[in-house]
Amino acid sequence: MFAQFNYAYFDGEIPTHEISYNNRFSNVAGRITYKPPKIELSRKHLRERPEQLRDTLLHEMIHAWLFARNENPGHTPAFKKKMRELGLRSIYHDLGTAAPLNENPKRYILRCEHCRREVLRKRRPPPGARCINCRRPLVTLEVVEMRQVDESLARAARGASKV
Fold it and tell me: 58 is in which domain, residue-wise?
């Protein structure tokens, strides 16, 4: 698809880029890096909306095309002009935030009661673990159940705690 679009819309001016999916993306549909040349796409966003794959790939390819021409690859007037030529409507994606593909395997919360720092860990920490910020002992909490929070109950609880 990259090669097809490169020759159809950019006269083959874009150097070859590695194309891959990034399962960690939850707020972006795509990202480009120039060194090494790579375009990453959000599997979470695009699995639900495969019709957005074309627009997202073209969006990232415009960045690559401008970079290859030694122009500013940001969302400049030249970027927006090329978008209009390709029939793309906006620099923004209306894909929302994607839920994780897999449940988080981390099962322990390490909390510092002094500075309130919290970190997630897959393994139980050794006895005597200390906070990286203030060097005080950490409290270890094991996550035993994962369930979705009812937002109306959460709002009510936050409201009750203010009284």
Answer: 2-86
CATH code for position 6? 3.30.2010.10
Express each pLDDT in 24-52 by its tens digit.
Answer: 877 788 889 998 999 998 887 777 777 78
Find the length of the chain: 163
Known catalytic residue: 60?
Answer: yes
* Residues in the chain with pLDDT values less than 50: 163
Spatial neighbors of 125 by CB under 8 A, at least 6 apart, are 108, 110, 138, 140
pTM exceeding the 0.70 threshold for the entire prediction: no
Which listed residue (60, 85, 118, 151) is catalytic?
60
110 membership: H or E segment, kind and range? strand 108-111
Which ranges of the chain does DSSP label H, i.e. alpha helix? Answer: 2-9, 43-48, 52-68, 77-86, 151-161
Bridge partners of residue 18, in order along the sequence: 38
Q: Which amino acid is at 92?
A: Y
Is there a single domain that holds both residue 12 and residue 81? yes
DSSP character at residue 50: T
Convert 26-46 to b/e letters by CB count within 10 Å (16 or more is b): eebbbebeeeeebbbbbbbbb
